[in-house]
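Lecture 7 notes. Example A: sequence first, then its structure tokens.
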Amino acid sequence: MKSSLRIAIHENDNIFSHSTLWTSSWIEYCKNNHLNYGIVDCYQPNIIAELKKYDCLVWHFSNYVLQDMLFARSILNIAKNLGLLVFPDLNTSWHFDDKIAETYLLKSINAPVPNAWMFYLENECNNWLQTEADFPLIAKLRCGSGANNVHLISNYSQAKRYVKQMFRRGYKPSPSVLFKTKSNIKSSGNWNTMKNRMKRIPDFLQTLSRAKMFPREHGYVYFQEYIPNDGFDLKIVVIGDKLSFIARNVRKGDFRASGGGDLFFDKSLVSRDILESAFETSDKLGFQCMGYDYVVDKHTGMGKIVEISYGFSHTALLQAGGYWDRSYVWHDEPLNAPYEVIENLIKM
């Protein structure tokens, strides 16, 4: 470990402060390990001169902050050009919160993904719906998380209405208060769980206020194959030579698990093919850290990657209580994602 490295940690509470950000964990790690670090605000006019004082820059930027999605990757790449070690780097983040880009990228290396269809002209999409589409289909906006703006399209009439909307007024990518409320009720098994969810209401309201700045999504359609499953999906996290997981129950009366918060940790659900494909995908694409959303086909038992994201709830991941190594041996030591990321970065 290069303890002499000067580490810059981006923080700007005026733009966004959220309990799931990794910023405080990075600060804690640096303090505990007596590392030379400083807090920087990458939105200050003098940021380039400021970054020249450092050797590393870490920034957990958010898909619900317009400024982050417009500028964070550029600033991180400039920092890398200045000679800094950065997280997330371009390989890890250029496709962040763009499901269409993720799909193209994963298909380019033959990763296990569902069939997907992207259309950029309304007439071509409608012709496909009439002649080739096999329902049900999953319709998604290219951006958004927590199962927002993910719809089950059961028939041609529903699809036609959705396509018409997408090639005209479009849809807002910001999270829905009604959807979030229903989601929390459906996925809360007891009163204590509901109380914990209520504590995060300030987080959600701040996310909502920031997300409202984004423009409406329109001018394209993204359909994904529906994968029948046994009522759960998996968040598989790969960081370097370690892999851990979170299992998430599908909401009652729904087909979505992401964002519901009904988590459990059954290692037997993570098959060898999932372990192998997750490690292989991260290796081929040069990811520093990646969370893969897998849906397991109940007919074949094979896991399919439906989305990816470099950022996720690190506190939820800790509850798994361990990780697999490259030999697929389980270690009873929680995988602390922010710690692991910064530790791997300064080893380089």
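Example B, a different protein, same format:
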Amino acid sequence: MARNNSVKGNFHYNKVEKMNKNFMYNNLARSNCYASSFAGSNFNFVSFRGAHFKSCDFYGCTFKGAEFIGTNLKNSKFRHAKFENTIFEEVNLDNVDFRDAEFKDVIFVGCDLSKCTNLGVDVLNITIFDEIPELNISQELEEAINKAMTNSFIKASRVLDTKEGKINPVKICLLQKLFSEEELIKGFNAMTEEIDRDFYTLSYLLRFFKN
């Protein structure tokens, strides 16, 4: 194994078996893995931002609250995997196999689903955007989000912004399904001062809103 020191916690694996492991909450951004098996492993609340997991086996893995942002998953297999509140944004799904995978409140943005296999567009609990949608929120909510994004930990996490640095409508859309506008405004204003640690996925903010 070679470790990429640019991101704490990420790794490089080449043709190895890391089955039935617990990777929960790990930041796997910019990891680079090839032809490795992670079957039965827990990837809940993991960031795969900018990572390469090509020709890897994720049989029976769980991906609750995981985020695949700009990830390369070419030729990987997700048979019998479970996805819940998972985001795929501008992901390479070339020849990715989703046979018998389970989905709940999963969002695909800017992904070519015609290149993957065993994923019908009529699968329940999947939302598909061909591109990042327009942001449609009140001025008060927009101001609260922009205020929250001045927090150094929120800014570093990149969970609320696009690659251009603007508010990410997909993430806000997901939050709007779970919380009222009043709850969102109150939460974003509060987290400006209260978020005081590193985090890597939107799931951390979900817990903040719930609390």
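Note on Example B: The chain has five helices and ten strands. The chain has two domains: 1-131, 139-210.
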